[in-house]
Amino acid sequence: MTARHHRQRGFVLLLVLVITGVIATSALILLERTRTAAGSTAAAVEVSQARALADAGIARLVQALRVQDDPLLKSILASGTPVPWRFAGSEIRLSFLRESGKADLNAGNAELIETLLDWMAVSPSLRQRAMQQVEAARRESTRLPSVLALLPACVRLTPVARLFEERFTVLTGSRGISAAGMADEQLRRIPGLTSADVEALRSRNDGGPSPADDPRLAHLQRFLADEEPIYRLRAEAMTPRGARITREAVILLSARAPIIRILSQRDLAEPAAIACD
């Protein structure tokens, strides 16, 4: 065998090794991409399952509000914190807030809004900024589109944003707030409220007259409103593998017909600690 044949065989062997290496590398890359895609698909399925569970929780809350003397609703009202509900082998935590128990930023009494801001455990500069936003919107005859519009962008995903959304709304169009279902601590945030006023409001909640008809509450009428059937429902669901979703829906219940109007619906992100520059 000549030296030329040896060189040709060596070149062919080297070429085969290179091609084999390229094929092996391609196969490994394809395998890794397949695993990643499979993992992403599995994660997406888990999130979808968690969202479906949360939607089931929202539906259960709607039923609780529709049915008189529903035991789940009684548990939520008595607890004041999210209440567990079992569905499809999973635990879903349910809660709701009455929008009429909050001050409307666009229509609410300015003194009431300012007092509620003063009660909030946030920085004075943030309270001042929020009140300035309300006053500016009223001077310009514009509507604040949401409660979060009061806040700097860097605060809207923090726990502070939740505090604002628990006290204010833009959905009721009421000048005052409804005292129905409020704890005494919440009632005392109303400007000028006395112990006698609390008792009068309690008797009203037990079937007494509305604020407009109760002479004992005449001095508070500008701060009070009747109950509106607008509710903010929340359902927190988690799958066995750890996918978690908190679903929120704001609904309007019709008192005259079995109609439910969904005003908004969203997934809530976990509060984040974000520093403003």
TrEMBL record:
The keyword Transmembrane applies. InterPro entries: GspK. Keywords: Membrane, Transmembrane, Transmembrane helix. The chain crosses the membrane at residues 12-31. PANTHER family: TYPE II SECRETION SYSTEM PROTEIN K. This is Type II secretion system protein K. It comes from Inquilinus ginsengisoli. The lineage of its organism: Bacteria, Pseudomonadati, Pseudomonadota, Alphaproteobacteria, Rhodospirillales.
